[in-house]
Write a structure and sequence with these properties.
Helices cover 44% and strands 17% of the residues. By secondary structure, it is α/β, with parallel strands linked by helices. The protein has a single domain, classed as 3-Layer(aba) Sandwich (Rossmann fold), CATH 3.40.50.2300. A five-stranded parallel β-sheet has the order 2-1-3-4-5, with helices on both faces.
Length: 133
């Protein structure tokens, strides 16, 4: 019997269709399984249901913004250890605030695909996972 192979799942929380599509295409092309949420509330539900390996979070979303979403994720035992990356058009100004709030990574829009892949790889390596947990 063959062992089941785990495919890394990344959940994208982004309200703008074009931005969500760009992230989905880039991550899927790197062989990640991608799930998508259009707002923070939907992301929270999907995170609890599917327990992704990483969550990419836009800070400015309707219903539940990225800041509130992070707090919800980090206070729930089901999702507390999932690394979260802020992906935002706020630029570099919010980097320290986001990292201090508990985000594990930060990407300012617009970004290069190489930066996206670097941040994702860093957070998904076994060493990074044990530090996050």
């Amino acid at each position: 019997m063959l062992a089941e192979v785990h495919q890394t799942t990344i959940l994208i929380a982004e309200d703008y269709d074009d931005n969500r599509e760009l992230l989905r295409v880039l991550l899927a092309s790197a062989n990640y399984n991608v799930r998508e949420a259009r707002n923070g509330r939907e992301c929270l539900e999907l995170a609890k249901q599917h327990q992704p390996d990483l969550i990419m979070v836009d800070l400015s979303m309707p219903i539940l913004d990225g800041w509130a979403l992070l707090q919800e994720l980090k206070t729930d035992a089901l999702t507390a250890t999932i690394p979260c990356v802020a992906v935002t058009a706020h630029g570099e100004a919010d980097r320290e605030r986001a990292l201090s709030a508990g985000f594990d990574g930060y990407i300012a829009k617009p970004f290069h695909s190489s930066e996206l892949y670097r941040v994702v790889r860093e957070l998904l390596t076994p060493a990074a996972q044990s530090e996050v947990c």
